[in-house]
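This section describes the prediction task in plain terms. A model, or a person checking by hand, is given the sequence of a single protein chain and must write out its three-dimensional structure as a string of tokens. No templates, partner chains or ligands are provided. The sample shown here is typical of the held-out split.
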Amino acid sequence: MTRRERNMEARWRILGGTLVVMALALMAWPGLADGVADAAQFTSDFRFEDCTWSSRGRNNPYFIPLRPGYQLVLEGEDEDEGETVEIKVQITVTGQKERISFVTPGGRTITLRARVIEEREWEDGELIEVSRNWFARCRETGDIYYFGEDVDDYEDGEIVGHGGAWRAGVDGAQPGIIMPATFLLGSRYFQEVAPGVAEDRAKHVGMGLEVMGFAGCVAVLETSRLDAGAESMKYYCPGVGLVIDDVVELVEYGLAD
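The expected answer:
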């Protein structure tokens, strides 16, 4: 879900020098010590058994409302080998649901219907990726969990690959958490738990921020266990969802026409 290796300097300036980074370690990813230089720990132990699941609702203040038809459009520019590239991202909550079944680390089989959120990305007007991401909300906590994605990579209008696709319950993959309902500064957790395929992680690095005229926003720094140099900064605002993702910023939001 992230666009890697962007220029982070502009994103950090939004915090106005007030950013506080806390080293709150939760629970270690199994095998984290072998070959990983960063000693920081990210939890991958989630209490799936305690949840009843919903594919709609908006009691999570920061994630995009799971309401079919809700849409975010973000635009911006990036540098690619010295050339400026116009980027557009469109995120749409669809009316579709995906059946997900997986076995928890504790041995319980969980089957649910996850909401399908489609993300489309263009560079200079050319479609480069379409992903269909699967999310569900834990009713008890309001936390939003991520269950995988189908990915189509495009070149010259043709599908050329499916990089980063994964699914909870397949090849050892487990769900990750994409946005807790209670935002704790310094929290660290895995968003994707698909060994060797998708292992994105999140760290809460800012809260109570004013971003693009929205108040009470939060900042999340995303990294990957598979790429030590990859970073992505995202900002989420209450009742709206994602407003900044590296070089792209929110230009439209609400129910699509």
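For orientation: The chain has a mean pLDDT of 86.
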